[in-house]
Design brief:
The chain contains four helices and two strands, in the order ββαααα. It is mainly alpha-helical. It has a domain of 76 residues: Up-down Bundle (Methane Monooxygenase Hydroxylase, Chain G, domain 1). Helix 1 packs antiparallel against helix 2, helix 2 packs across helix 3 and helix 3 runs antiparallel to helix 4. Keywords: Lipoprotein, Membrane, Palmitate, Signal, Thylakoid. It is found in: Cellular thylakoid membrane. Belongs to the Psb27 family.
Length: 119
Amino acid sequence: MFFQFASEVNAAKTLMTGDFAKDTIAVSSTLKETITLPKEDKGLSEAEKEAVFLISDYISRYRNRSQVNTSTTFTTMQTALNALSGHYKTFANRPVPENLKERLNKELSKAEKLAARDS
């Protein structure tokens, strides 16, 4: 635990394994499941919170790693993650629009294929 400005702050534990290909596939798969949840789903809010955490965790882990941050896999994944994160931060109470879902599914699937090929 860390104490900052006289309030308790818990350090979040990473969900990333350090294996770029496996992490890319796992994050992509989880995000594709999240964006397909219907807006009436009781677990949607929690799934969206988890998605935002995963996005931040993934980018934090791999953004500064020169072995991966110039790869097509990473840049494709980063594009998708930025789009989804931007939607969640800007339109927190709105469902993901269909055109964004289609784009995300395409980009995340491409990133999965590239990661599987490169591993």
